[in-house]
Amino acid sequence: MLSSFLYPQTFYYQNAQKVYLTKQETSLRSHLSVDTFVDEHNRTVGVGDEIIIETQNIDALVAKYPIDVVEKIGNRFYRCKVTPRDRVFEIAALIYHEEGVTSAHPNFIKAKQTR
């Protein structure tokens, strides 16, 4: 796959396992704020500039990392914006390893599927 050579593989953590993604080239103007990736199971996902973090102490993470809370979801989930956007995977992986963090991964945009 040519895209594997053009873009280094990136990953996120799911259930303490690395899930690798390969960036895909897109020429659609409407998707300038979203990058397209294909996972190990050939599923396509979009990734923007947000991560979802599960933690009890978001304030410590906001002070340490270039993130801003966009929305609190329930008691312990937060949707956060990462600046700059091209560091979304890196920041999510770093936060994942912080004490008190249960999960941290990009806010994936998935295609709708009928069941």
Characterization of the model:
With 115 residues, this protein is α+β, with helices and mostly antiparallel strands. It has helices at 2-6, 58-64, 88-96; strands at residues 10-14, 17-24, 35-39, 44-55, 67-73, 77-82, 101-110. Strands 1, 2, 3, 4, 5, 6 and 7 form a seven-stranded antiparallel sheet that branches. A hairpin with a 2-residue loop joins strand 1 (10-14) and strand 2. The protein is globular, with a radius of gyration of 14 Å. Mean pLDDT is 85; it is low at 1-7.
Could you name the key traits of this structure?
single chain; 115 residues; alpha+beta; 3 helices; 7 strands; 46% strand; disordered N terminus
Radius of gyration: 14 Å
Give the topology string: H per helix, E per strand.
Answer: HEEEEHEEHE
Structural class: alpha+beta
Report the strand count. 7
- Helix content percent band: 10-25%
Q: How many strands, what sense, and barrel or not for the largest sheet?
A: 7 strands, antiparallel
Distance from N terminus to C terminus (CA atoms, Å) equals: 30 Å
General shape: globular
Task: Tell me, rounded to a whole number, the average pLDDT.
Answer: 85
Strand residue percentage: over 45%
Number of helices: 3
Uncertain spans, ≥5 residues at pLDDT below 50?
Answer: 1-7
